[in-house]
Design brief:
The protein is mainly α and 192 residues long. The protein has one domain (4-190): Four Helix Bundle (Hemerythrin (Met), subunit A). It is 79% helix and 0% strand. The protein is elongated and about 65 Å long. The N and C termini lie far apart (59 Å).
Length: 192
C-alpha cells in the first residue's frame, strides 16, 4: 500500500509526464508548419524582402520576461514567500496579456503595410506568418487560462513550500511557450 507521500509523488510525475507529452506533440506540429514554410519558399510569389513587424520584437522581450517571472514565482513559493509569489504570478499574467497585445499590434502593422494573408494582395509568406502566430496564440491562451487557475489556487492557499505542483507545471508550460516563440521568431527572422 502506498503512503500519502508516495501517492503525491506518483501523481506529480504523472502530471509532468502528461505535460511533456503535450509539449512534444505541440513541438511536432510547429516542426511540421515550419517545414511546410521551408518547402513553400521555392514558390515564385514568396516575399524575399519581408521584415517582421517591430511589435514582434517587443513581444519577444515580453514573453522572455513572462517566463522569468514564472520561474521566480516557483522559487518564491518554495521559500513560502506568498507575497512575492502573488506579485510574480500576477506579473506573469500581465506579461502574457501584453504579449497577446503586441502580437495583434504586429498584425495591425502588417495591415498598415497592405500585407494580407488572403485575397488579391495576399501573400503565401504572410499566410504562413498568420498561421504560425495564431496557432502559438492559441497555445498561449491555454497558458493564460492555466495562469488564472494557478492564481485562483494560490489565493485559496493551496500552494506552499511542500505543495507547489500547479506552479511548477505552469512554469514548465510558460518556459515551453517562451522557447517556442523564440524559435518561431528566429526562424521567421532569419529564414527568408
Amino acid at each position: 500500500m502506498m503512503t500519502p507521500e508516495e501517492h503525491k509523488q506518483r501523481t506529480a510525475r504523472s502530471y509532468k509526464l502528461l505535460l511533456v507529452f503535450a509539449m512534444i506533440s505541440m513541438t511536432m506540429m510547429f516542426a511540421g508548419l515550419t517545414s511546410a514554410l521551408v518547402v513553400s519558399k521555392s514558390r515564385p510569389d514568396w516575399m524575399k524582402d519581408f521584415q517582421l513587424p517591430s511589435s514582434f520584437f517587443v513581444s519577444l522581450g515580453v514573453i522572455i520576461l513572462c517566463s522569468i517571472a514564472m520561474h521566480f514565482a516557483k522559487i518564491a513559493i518554495k521559500k513560502d514567500n506568498r507575497a512575492l509569489t502573488t506579485k510574480l504570478l500576477l506579473a506573469t499574467l500581465a506579461l502574457g496579456s501584453a504579449f497577446v497585445y503586441f502580437q495583434f499590434q504586429g498584425f495591425s502593422q502588417l495591415f498598415e503595410n497592405h500585407l494580407y494573408p488572403v485575397g488579391g494582395s495576399g501573400s503565401i509568406t504572410i499566410s504562413f506568418l498568420y498561421v504560425l502566430v495564431y496557432v502559438h496564440l492559441a497555445h498561449l491562451a491555454g497558458g493564460i487560462i492555466s495562469q488564472l487557475i494557478i492564481i485562483y489556487n494560490h489565493f485559496k492557499q493551496k500552494y506552499n513550500s511542500s505543495q507547489f505542483l500547479g506552479i511548477e507545471l505552469g512554469a514548465m508550460y510558460w518556459h515551453f511557450l517562451d522557447f517556442l516563440w523564440v524559435y518561431l521568431f528566429l526562424f521567421l527572422y532569419f529564414f527568408k
